[in-house]
Structure prediction request, 330 residues.
Amino acid sequence: MPATDTDRRVLEVALRTRITESDELAALAHLEPEEVEGSLHRLSAAGELHFVDGVISYVSPAESAAASVRGLLEGHLAATSEVVAELSGIVGRLPALMQQWTVGELAAGHTIPIEVRHGPRAAEDTWYDLAERSSAGGDSRTTARAVLPDLSRFATSSPERTASFARTLGSRDAVQAIIPEGPIDDRLHEKYVAYREAGVEFRTMVRPPSWFWIDNDNVLALPLDWGEGWPTTVVCLRHPPIVSMAVEHFRLLWAGSRSIAPRSDEPPWVPLLRMMKRGYTLEAASRTLGINPRTGRRRVARGMEHYGVATLFALGVAWGADVERSSPRI
Prediction:
């Protein structure tokens, strides 16, 4: 990883131009030749490029990063905070470097599989698009892995879009998502339940490092600026070394995250009523939640007693009115 701002500048210009002479590179980077030569030696030692006998040659940032990850993980059987932080840094700096590399590829008449999406809904549209493509692609096994540090956007998603995406995710073999630790408020809870019922497995961590999304372990979506919770510029990469590196990073994050505990302030009949509102029978809702139907019936009976009603329909009406009164106004 470049050690100084000068090193970063030299590497960006070098990747973009593929110049082989250090003096030419110094002129283009508006730096002194001695500065550039020192940077080139450091970058060469770090494996970012090659600088031998005064001649610069190049390696893709993806290949360089993959080598860094292999070296980082050698001998590490378990993830330490230092390993995870360094891996996060390696993954996070790739979008900007790959953009510089792409400029050089285009200048040489070649392309690499990169897509860039801009706008306030770039992150949201990217993961909906990836999910739909994957669903239509007929892959034998479909997976998704996501880190979602900022959930505010989901609170404003329409019920129709939430339901549509939940159906798409429900057709996958495995979906894992890491979200920030903390209570899930009422605006988000129904969406969380919809995705959980579709088969999404959620875990939490105190400070997720950045938004990113891995589709089928062969497409990686990253923010241009690593660390953003809800990016407005998203880079999609189809490059095996990069994607495998992100998968490894996600695996370490997942191993260090925590399963979500049930809401402690929630009466035990509420999860059942939520699922029944979505069309489940009491028995099906009970089994989906991992409880015996007899236990489910007892919990519903306690709900009827709580609201002073005698039928399941009346319980649903009373609970719905309670939810409406307690829901925040937006």
Q: What stands out?
A: The longest strand covers residues 174-180. The CA atoms of residues 79 and 255 lie 8 Å apart.
